[in-house]
Amino acid sequence: MIKVCKFGGSSVKNASQIKKIIEIIKEDKKRKVIVVSAPGRDEKYDEKITDHLLNIATNGNHFFEQKIDISKEESLKTTINKYKTLCKDLNIDEKFIINDLKKDLENSSLKDEEKTAFFLSRGEHFNAKLICEYMNKIGIKTKLMLPEKFEFLLSDNFTDGKILTVSYENIKNSFDLKSDIRYLVPGFYGINKDKKIVVMSRGGSDLTGGELAYALDVDIYENWTDTNGVYEVDPRIINDANVISRLTFKELRLLSAKGFNVFHFNAMLNCKKGKIPINIRNTNNPNHQGTMILSERVPMEDVVGIAKLDNMALIHIQKDMLGEEIGFSAKLLKIFSEFKINTYHYPTDKDDIAILVEQEDLKGKINNLRRQIEKELNTDHLHVTYNLSILTLVGIGLKENSFIIVDAITALKENNIPFEMFDMSPSKISFHIGITQNVSDVALKTLQKKLLNK
């Protein structure tokens, strides 16, 4: 059995955390391919190193736009000091890292997105170099595998690169999984066909890990983070929430679309295709088995998780006989597209249709949107309900037991919690309840107690 392991920013944020991941790697010889992120924020550094690197690349504009008072020069100093501290705490000669880091961060030959991508990649690049040096120093035979060396080829979009098919063959030809060597790979970046650095979307180390797991056809992809796994509900709201032991890719997709932000979904796509299980684990609690994400599971539970998505708005449109007007829905959705507003659910009947959107998307647009809809579609009435939370109940067992919906509605009724919207998914493995935001936490606790704490 071979495993690819990815360690996120919180897992490699300082020397103490790096030593933890080394113990995890040592504990299992099957952990052959290790992907690392840039250092995350810690007690001394309030911002992620990746954000400091972006601030350097944009001459201070990145933090300025967030109203954070950190200049380009301060970000440069912070980044260098961070790696100096790591070298000191891990007893590594800083010349091995710092000289090259300074040289890269002083590179003035790059422009625009090419510069941004190069600077952003340096967090993972130098963290991987440092951790590889430390692993060899303490006797773990490790080979550094830089994406530019094994040709991890991405598309030409410098800050949102997508993997090219040829990369899979390059990966297969570069990693010898039968050897006793561990391979250490910096996540998040690759190169284009012109050998220039390209980064993936933020959270791209997940993507690197997922693509390596798929290309090497490994047995498990372990994703190590700072949480025990995927919780049945948000543990920040319900502190005694349980970790879900097993989820299908589909279930996690439905949960992640409604506020469960544990894992970069695109990293799952090829693992799903290759039926490679993903195990989400906690670096700070390695004895916990975490959440296993699988292609299929025996549907023991009706509902495995409840996600909550806040700050939503429901746009209710009325027009006599709209359900019999061919092309009405298509024209309506085209208007939303023209205003660059993402839409979610479209419950409809003969004379009504409702569109769920993110409330933020309506800012500065709702007046003109309303005028455009009324003008083009000759509607009778348009009403917007703001400040909604969408509670999404997910579980493949719902296909066999839809009566759980009755239990959910009854629980809300017994606790005098009204709802504004109800919609069941076509797959029949999730349903959505719109609740006024000021009582949504109470609603979540009510549903968790009724449906998950059986």
Q: How would you describe what is shown here?
A:
This protein has 454 residues and is an alpha/beta fold. It has 2 domains: 3-294, Carbamate kinase, CATH 3.40.1160.10; 305-452, VC0802-like (2-Layer Sandwich), CATH 3.30.2130. Helix content is 37%, strand content 20%. It has helices at residues 15-27, 49-57, 61-65, 72-89, 98-105, 112-137, 147-150, 166-174, 204-216, 249-256, 266-273, 328-338, 366-377, 404-414, 440-452, and strands spanning 3-7, 31-36, 142-144, 182-186, 189-191, 197-199, 220-225, 246-248, 278-282, 291-294, 305-318, 352-358, 381-394, 421-424, 430-436. The strands form 3 sheets. It has an 8-stranded mixed β-sheet, with helices on both faces. Strands 12-11-13-15-14 form a 5-stranded antiparallel β-sheet. A two-stranded antiparallel ribbon has the order 5-6. Strand 14 and strand 15 (430-436) form a beta hairpin. It is globular. The mean pLDDT is 92. Keywords: Amino-acid biosynthesis, ATP-binding, Kinase, Nucleotide-binding, Transferase. It catalyses: L-aspartate + ATP = 4-phospho-L-aspartate + ADP. Belongs to the aspartokinase family.
Number of strands: 15
User: Main sheet: which strands, in order across?
Assistant: 3-4-2-1-7-9-10-8
Structural class: alpha/beta
Share of helix, binned: 25-40%
What is the alpha-carbon Rg in Å? 24 Å
Distance between the termini: 36 Å
CATH hierarchy class name of the largest domain: Alpha Beta
CATH architecture of the largest domain: 3-Layer(aba) Sandwich
Q: Which sheet architecture does the biggest sheet show?
A: 8 strands, mixed
How much of the sequence is in beta strands? 15-25%
The backbone outline, from C-alpha atoms, is: globular
Give the SSE string: EHEHHHHHEHHEEEHEEHHEEEHEHEHEEH
Could you say what the CATH topology of the largest domain is called? Answer: Carbamate kinase
What is the average per-residue confidence, as pLDDT, rounded to a whole number?
A: 92
